[in-house]
Hints:
It is a single chain. The protein folds into two domains: 2-244, Purple Acid Phosphatase, chain A, domain 2; 249-368, no CATH class. The chain is 31% helix and 26% strand. It contains nine helices and 17 strands. The strands form four sheets. Strands 4-3-2-1-13-14 form a six-stranded mixed β-sheet, covered by helices on one side. It has a six-stranded mixed β-sheet with strand order 5-6-7-10-12-11, with no helix packed on it.
Amino acid sequence: MIRLLHTADWQIGRQYGSFDADDAVPLAEARFAAVERLAQLASAEQVDAVIVAGDVFDAQALAPRTIRRLFNALAAYAGPWVMIPGNHDAALADGVWQQALRLGAAPANLHLALAPGVIELAPARLALLCAPLTQRHTHGDLTDWFDGCETAAGWLRVGIAHGALQGLLAEDIDAANPIAPDRAARARLDYLALGDWHGCKRIDERTWYSGTPEPDRFKDNGAGQCLLVEIDGPGAVPRVTPRATATYRWRQIEQRIDVASDIEQLAAQLQQAQASDVIALRLTGDVDLAGQTRLLAALGAAEARVRSLRRDLSALRLRPTADDIAALQADGYLGSVITELRDADGPAAQEALAILTTLLAERRHAADGTTA
């Protein structure tokens, strides 16, 4: 029996430009931590090899320190690491892999496939059929040659590729780097290790996407894992077990606010959030001034608790009640303006209403010696 760890899409060097710097740096660091956990897991499970199915790096131009840090993160596992380039780190003549080779940063136990071919691990009687990307996008199936490739009798045949299985994934990623959906059967593979899809996905009993070991998108698709693959021998059905590797949990929350209890429900949900949560929150509906105050307090408390809270309140309308307007002591012209803004459509009106009511509330509280 052999034991493999299948992983992909590390995206080392990724920049989280849409996040605040306080959040972007820890999210980038978590990708190195995920690799360290993979190495520790591989050592603890005593696997025969770790397979990395492309996109080790996120870009072709990276700082030497980033490259060296990645390879340092492999240190806990002394067995073979087998890697292929993907679309983000394709094996270009002047790309990131050539830079790594010039730096001499890669460890001796790294087996790197920069061209199509078979990597043989004799102690495990394992033949690894590798289909690396040598350019970012191709329109032909780079695994075609697997079908006619002969390997030693009695050895396991494992394919490694990076791309989109045709007809089985979302249409918008099927255009480039295609892979035949029945490649494992056609090429007599015991297992086909795939990268490119960032979630963990079983295609058939011999074909899997491992997903990225550290989530980077607000999708509930099983990201943040690697796959422990056990195969008893040639022709045996693999036993595949997902193993958690992530530091952060990315969550998307969408909720409509209509009444006070909706805000209380959201506040209770946010109180359960942890420091490891990265949350994208989108609210719709209507809220009065009291509800807005309660909502902003709940959001502020959550922001201090979680790794990141990205809020989209553009579809949440501020609608002060008649009692709200009266409490603001906005008589005459100001009261008319607030009423007009409340009934107007568009983000500009909502922003103006929020500013005006906040200023009036602050003025009122200052006058009577209370806090907002």
